[in-house]
Amino acid sequence: MNNKSDENKGQSIRNKISFLLISFYSGLCVISDLGVKYYFKDQKKVDTTLLTKILSLFKIPYVIKPLYGLLIDFFPICGYKKKSYLFICFFINIISWYIFMCSNNHLYIAIISQLLVNTSLSFTTVIGSAIQVEMSKMYENKKEGEKSSDLLSQYFITKSIGTLIPSIFKGFLIEKYTNDIIFYISGLISIFIFISGIILVEDKINPKKIRLKLKSNKNNQPLISNVIEEEDNNNNNNNDNKLGQILNLIKDKNVIVLLVIIFILESSPSSVSPLFYYETNVLGLNPKDLGLIDLVSQISIIVVIVIYNYYFRSFNFKLITFFVKISMFLIYCLICMLIMKKTQEFISDFYLVTFATSLHAGLKSLGQLPYSLLAIQFSPLNLKATTYSLCIFSCYLGNLFADYIDYGLSIYFNVSHYNFENLGTLVFIENVLNVIQLLYIFAIPIKFFSQKKSENTQKKRISTEKK
Question: Can you list the domains of the chain with their CATH numbers?
Answer without folding.
Answer: 11-203+244-454 (1.20.1250.20)
